[in-house]
Amino acid sequence: MCGISGYIGNNFNKYKFNILGLYNDSRGGDSCGIFINNDGVNSVHYGHDKTKLYKNFVELGGLKDVDLELPNFALLHCRKASVGGISLATAQPVAIRNERNEIVFSMIHNGTLINYKELATKYNVDFTLTESDSQIFCRIVYKAGYGVLEEYDGAGTFVFWDWRDGIDTIKVFKGASLYYENDNDIYIERPLSCIKEENSYWFSSMEESLEFINDTDAKVENVESNILFTIKNGRIISEIAIDRSKRKQVDKLVVNWEKQRAENAKKFPQSRIAYGGYEDFEEWPEYGAQSGVYGDRGYGKKWVDSAKCDKIKVSNYIQKNKIFFNEDGLYYYNGYPCEGLIESTPAGYTDVSIVIKKTFYFVSGVLMKSYFDYLCAKQFVSQNFQVCEDDCIEMYLSAYSPTPVPYIIEDATKHKFIEFYTYNEVLRDTQLCNEPFEPFFDFTRNRYIVQNGDITWHYEYRDKASYYEESLEQKALDEQILLGKLSNNQIKKMIRKNLREIYARN
Prior knowledge:
Oligomer: single chain
Number of strands: 28
Helix content: 10-25%
Number of domains: 2
Largest sheet: 7 strands, antiparallel
Radius of gyration: 28 Å
Number of helices: 9
Strand order of the largest sheet: 3-2-4-1-12-11-13
Structural class: alpha+beta
């Protein structure tokens, strides 16, 4: 995400402008920049490295040579890199100059575009691989016109400054589109709010920043989506509808697994440990049995070098009609990864009639927290894995599972390695597991100690069985769905909202 903000009109206040920049620092972090117009004199200024935050940009003199007394407009951008490297060259605002080196067109953009290369090819716009999507799209709009706003896939709010006809023209656009290609609803792509005063127009990605600077009776409003506003002297002088009803924001849901695995490999090149071989050891590690916390008797298994390990296989012990946790990190039933709804006792037995049984939900061998989570996970899989059959589906399901989920890697020697992931609800992102966990459906309690995604050791101890129970909130929602108290349309909307909350990025 990036932060954009600024002012258009004839009643500028530099203190309000700086407050907007300080607020939007939280959405940036890689570079910043401003574009100012004062009586026909344009200037653009960038912050990078030590001045990448607007706060540091101001503190270290970034505004020393900038006339902020009464500009006609001032555009501000705080960049969080998505496409393109982190450098001074990719900082925004993007500026296009004529043969006399005069700035004639500029743009600030919050969002990520996914078909900008195709559009550049279509409109014969040259680009380099080191450029950002925003830099390339700015030149596309400059050449093809504002109608191209109907053609981009991805997400964006944009502010354009156009001086090609010798007149300052500011255009503001906030996109809304389908989230997936087969979605049914239109969703805002990126936030943008504004204050419309007499001859003044303030805007920001962060609504609360406008609330903070607002000292008039004007209301802080959300900018209307899919309308291209033209603003002159702080007043909206025209509105043009842009049809984005056929566009999509993402090709498929994207999480940071690839990035995290690459970073983990750099930090811990020798830490990836293979399953299938182990050595017994007699002494308990720091979690020691002396405390009695883990039962009276137990033994540990210390994983050894991968060269000694065989390819992962389903456990040799397969008990018929019993759910069990296999050493590849998945739950199995009768020799196959669990799938769908399985009715069993809390210990995993399906053929017992004298004990109360309940229904458990599985997707690709991963246990789901609830029936609603199962529905969400199934929807996610159906939308993203119809073609990519070789993808590791289970690794994307950490948000829906009560235990860490595995990512299985097979190397050239046919050894399989596993990294475990969990979902951080605060950060709304996946992360390498760094905590112990105990599988369910087992009377012999196994505790796995995981560091940076890798199991460092595990032990078994005999205590009461480890059962999985839904939370009261999960049970209440499942009951509403299963008893038909919610319509299919309500359920679909809840699922779509859930997927956006878990996988979407602002």
